[in-house]
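Appendix C: a fully annotated inverse folding record. The material below is reproduced so that readers can follow the format used throughout the book. The structure is listed first as tokens, followed by the designed sequence.
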């Protein structure tokens, strides 16, 4: 029998499955321990990057026609001001940078 997922992750997956006529990608934070086996210990309750906060898609032909609204992180750097600089793609059309707050978790 397949192993059940943690409740928080399972909630994210169910929300995704209910809206699958067209895909909508969001991004959140997760934290993991600094020592092996690098176990995850934190998953943000809400997304921190949302496609509807970005400019409307330009209606150009999509690489994947099922992708309606998309944000996908590509990298992040922790800055001296204790914030994250995140690079991400928007609607399979362009790239963006955004500074986000760092949230300490146990």
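Designed amino acids, in order:
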């Amino acid at each position: 029998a397949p192993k059940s997922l943690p409740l928080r992750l399972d909630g994210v997956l169910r929300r995704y499955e209910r809206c699958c006529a067209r895909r909508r990608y969001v991004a959140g934070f997760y934290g993991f321990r600094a020592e092996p086996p690098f176990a995850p210990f934190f998953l943000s309750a809400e997304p921190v990057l949302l496609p509807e906060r970005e400019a409307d898609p330009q209606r150009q032909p999509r690489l994947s026609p099922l992708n309606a609204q998309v944000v996908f992180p590509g990298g992040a750097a922790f800055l001296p001001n204790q914030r994250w600089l995140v690079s991400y793609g928007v609607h399979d059309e362009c790239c963006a940078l955004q500074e986000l707050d760092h949230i300490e978790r146990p």
